[in-house]
Task: structure prediction
Amino acid sequence: MALSRLASQFAAEIKQHDWSDAPYRIDRAGHNRASDSNCGDEVLSENEAQNVRTNVMWVTAQVLGYSDPNFDVYEFAEASGVNILTRSGRQSGHIRVGLRTDSAGRYMRPGTWEFDPEYITTETSDFYHADLYCNAFQRGYRGAKLLTFPIDGTVPEKWNPCAHCVGDRA
Ligand SMILES: [Zn+2]
Result:
């Protein structure tokens, strides 16, 4: 799946920016030492500069992933100029580990360590739940795509409240 327009624009900026002197000087977006007649002598190692780029990619990805259910962090990282492969050439799991997500792929709200309170279910489920960790949900969950509904909205009638986690709240 292609990146959203916004995501690919963020990636393009993160990729083109020269992060090698990021701690030492303030410069414009798109800074490039090669074309900067006023650049200082202090530079990060290639590894350090790449770490800065990766961190910038992650904080940006947290917002993009929170806002867009189709966001693909691997595609975004690669477009940002971050290496997504392990030495053996496979997709590196650490790209995903840098995000604040849960086992179903939900993103924590930007600027917090919290998930939005919402009801969750799946297309084939009969019930909706208040919590990913409800035992009844976990027993039936087979890794299908999660459907979510705002807690202060209405859940379509197709799903009934789970007696274990929603029952007394609905
Ligand atoms: Zn439940």
In short: The helical segments are 5-16, 46-67, 73-79, 94-97, 135-140. The chain has a mean pLDDT of 92. Residues 5-97 form one domain.
